[in-house]
Specification:
Layout (H helix, E strand, L loop, with lengths): L2 H6 L18 H16 L5 E4 L2 H13 L9 E5 L11 E4 L2 H17 L13 E3 L3
Parallel strand pairs: 1-2, 2-3
Antiparallel strand pairs: 3-4
């Protein structure tokens, strides 16, 4: 997270020993960084994390619990909301409006086929926050 975002939210940056990125499909990296995260949680440096996707969040959650970290008592975990409801405990998740994303994608494709020179544009769809446990 950038310093300006942290300042706007009145949050302190994490110490450098706290991992900010996990490598998907790399169990050794996940084990190493989970150990660092456990130390940061137990020392009071970290009390919440945002994990981009469930394929990392679910194995991380398992490792954290095995190390004695209580979710959400010791550490709040928010993830992308695909399988978050199926985790133990269920995780809070950011859920995009999937139907609206799909509908907009189809409409954009049709407009591009009709007018290949059409300028690019941005579309903003607000996600929902599904708060669990």
């Amino acid at each position: 997270m950038s310093c300006s975002v942290l300042a706007a939210l009145k949050l302190e940056p994490c110490p450098p020993q706290v991992p900010s990125m996990l490598t998907e499909n790399d169990p050794a990296d996940l084990d190493d960084k989970c150990g660092l995260l456990v130390n940061a949680v137990k020392s009071g440096q970290v009390d919440a994390i945002l994990v981009h996707n469930d394929s990392i969040a679910l194995p991380l959650l398992s490792r954290l619990r095995a190390a004695g970290v209580r979710i959400p008592v010791d550490l709040a975990v928010v993830t992308y909301d695909e399988l978050a409801a199926l985790a133990d405990p269920p995780l809070t998740g950011v859920a995009p409006p999937r139907r609206a994303v799909g509908a907009e994608a189809v409409e954009l494709l049709v407009r591009r086929l009709q007018d290949p020179g059409r300028p690019a544009h941005h579309l903003r769809l607000q996600p929902a926050l599904n708060v669990r446990d």
